[in-house]
Amino acid sequence: MKKDDEIIEITINISAPLNVLSLPGLTKCIKLKELGVKPFSFGNALSNKMIAYLEKNVGE
């Protein structure tokens, strides 16, 4: 689910909070909040970026 209209459709038709997981091209937190998403999860995306950065830039 990446399209705004899909997210809106779900948020207006469920009574529970909609949790969305970070995906490439979807991580626009302010926009997701406007669409009714709460909470938002980075999942392992943030740790994957940090590990890749450390492996590339930190010497042993």
Task: Lay out the secondary structure.
Blueprint: H1 4-13, E1 20-21, H2 29-34, E2 40-41, H3 45-57
Parallel strand pairs: 1-2
Query: DSSP strand (E) fraction?
Result: 5-15%
Instruction: Give the overall form.
Output: elongated
Instruction: Specify Rg, calculated over alpha carbons.
Output: 15 Å
In total, how many beta strands? 2
Structural class: mainly alpha
Offer a quick outline of the entry.
The chain has 60 residues and is mainly alpha-helical. It is built from 3 helices and 2 strands, in the order H-E-H-E-H. It is elongated.
How does this model look, in words?
The protein has one domain (4-57). Helix content is 48%, strand content 7%. The protein has helices spanning 4-13, 29-34, 45-57, and strands spanning 20-21, 40-41. A two-stranded parallel sheet has the order 1-2. The longest helix is centred in the C-terminal third of the chain and has 13 residues, at 45-57. The model has no long low-confidence stretch (mean pLDDT 83).
